[in-house]
Amino acid sequence: MPDPILRISGVDVRYGRTLALSDIDIDLFEGEAVGLLGTNGAGKTTLLNALSGFLRPAAGELRLFGASINRCPPHVIVRRGLLHLSQERDLFGDLTVHDNLRLGSLARAAKSFDRNLERVCHYFPRLKERLRQRASTMSGGEQQMLAIGRALMAEPRVLLFDEPSAGLSPLFVQEIGAMMQALRKEGEITIILVEQNMLLAAQVIDRYYMLRAGRIVARGPASELEKDHEELAREYYL
Ligand code: ATP
C-alpha cells in the first residue's frame, strides 16, 4: 500500500476548555475523495481549519506528504499544495473575476497562468463570460465557482471543500457536482469534502467519515451512502 499523502492521527482540537475534536484518525491516499459528514457543530469545519493551519491540534499529528504540519502557518501549508475553500469564499469583491483568478495563481506561484485559466474556464464557462465583472456583483453560485476556480489556479494537490452547496440553487449544486467529478477524472487531485447534501457527496466521494460531537462515529464506502443515506441520516442527523 502506498503511503498516505495526508495522515491525521490521534488529533484533538480544543477551543479553550472545550474539546471540539477528539482522537481523529483519517488517512487519505493520492487521488481519493473523502467525505466528512455530520450535523451542525460536529467538528467538520474545525478539522478543515486544523489541516489548513488556522488551528493547532492540542494532541496528535497531521502529516502532509510525510512531513508534520502541526506547527506550520497557513501560507506554508498552501505552498505545500493544500488549499482550503472556506464557506466564506474570501473573494476580493472589488476586483474582477480575472484579477481574483490571478491572485489565486500567486498563492503558490503556479507555473502556467494561461493554461490554468483555460482549464478553469473549461470547468466554468460562466466565468469565462464574466472575466471583467467585479466579483461582488456575481450571484452566490457564481461566486462559489469563482472561489473554486481561484483555488484551482494555484495547482493544488489537496483541496478541502467546506459545504460548497450551502445556499446554492439546485442548478448550481449540479454544476459544482459535475465539476468535481470531472476534476476527479483528471486524477491529480485529492479531495476532502464537507457536505450536508448527501446526494452531492455520494456523487463525488469514494469513502465517508461521519462525525458527531467531535468524534468519528461511522465510516464506510460511498456506496453505503447511496444505499443507506436515509438510514444514516435518521441515525446520525436526527
Ligand atoms: P457546521 O456544519 O455548523 O459548520 P461543523 O461540523 O463544521 O458544523 P464546527 O464549526 O467545527 O462544526 O464546530 C465544532 C464545535 O466547536 C461546535 O460545538 C462549535 O460551537 C465549537 N466551535 C467552533 N468554533 C469555535 C470557536 N471559535 N470558539 C469556541 N467554540 C467553537
UniProtKB/TrEMBL annotation:
Enumerate the transmembrane spans: none
Q: Which GO terms describe its biological process?
A: L-amino acid transport
Cite the CDD domains for this sequence.
ABC_TM1139_LivF_branched
Q: Which Gene3D superfamilies does its entry note?
A: P-loop containing nucleotide triphosphate hydrolases
**Domain ABC transporter as annotated: residue spans:** 6-238
Q: Which SUPFAM superfamilies match?
A: P-loop containing nucleoside triphosphate hydrolases
Enumerate the UniProt keywords alphabetically.
Answer: Amino-acid transport, ATP-binding, Cell membrane, Membrane, Nucleotide-binding, Transport
Q: Which domain of life is it from?
A: Bacteria
One GO term in the molecular function aspect is:
ATP hydrolysis activity
List the InterPro entries hit by this protein, alphabetically: AAA+_ATPase (IPR003593), ABC_transporter-like_ATP-bd (IPR003439), ABC_transporter-like_CS (IPR017871), BCAA_Transport_ATP-bd_LivF (IPR052156), P-loop_NTPase (IPR027417)
What family is this protein classified in? Belongs to the ABC transporter superfamily.
Q: Which PANTHER family match?
A: HIGH-AFFINITY BRANCHED-CHAIN AMINO ACID TRANSPORT ATP-BINDING PROTEIN LIVF (PTHR43820)
Q: What is this protein called?
A: Amino acid/amide ABC transporter ATP-binding protein 2, HAAT family
Q: Which organism is it from?
A: Pollutimonas bauzanensis
